[in-house]
Amino acid sequence: MRRALAVLGVVALAGCATTGPLDRKPDATTDLMSAGGKKVGTAALFDEGGKVRLVVDAMGLDPGKHGIHFHAVGMCQDPAFTTAGPHFNPGGRKHGLDASDGPHAGDLPNLEADKDGKAHYDVTTDRVTLGPGAASLLRPEGTTLVIHAKEDDQKTDPSGNSGDRLACGVIRKS
User: Fold this and answer.
1) How many domains does the chain have?
2) Domain assignment of residue 133, given as a range
3) Which of 31, 51, 53, 74 falls between 20 and 30 A from 22, CA-CA?
């Protein structure tokens, strides 16, 4: 009996072992939905004093790399999510992390799904904020997070040739 309780105690504590901002409530979140209305992932956003940490868990993707971006409009309507608008770009820059005139504020490194179509993504950016200002993701008209079908080439304007929009979620303050 003692051994069983000790094992249960270790298992319970293992769930508390996260460090960094994941051990606190996110400042903003979204559920990522497919064009068919199925939940395919979640995203948590953390304000890190002038930077935003984005943590995404997704499933049901094709294995490989996918473009992932913040988009400029807080709408995710079926089937193509075009209502999410273009990439979030308050500074009027060109697309791509590798572009000499870029990047958009909403440009992010590619997300990579494993052979089972699952992805865990954790990135920090200083091009957006969860506070006030032009670069805020929490603006009145809203913003979205979109996962695309193909890899973002990080240079081709306006979207990095990243293909169709597979999943979309409106970012909301927690």
Assistant:
1) 1
2) 23-173
3) 74
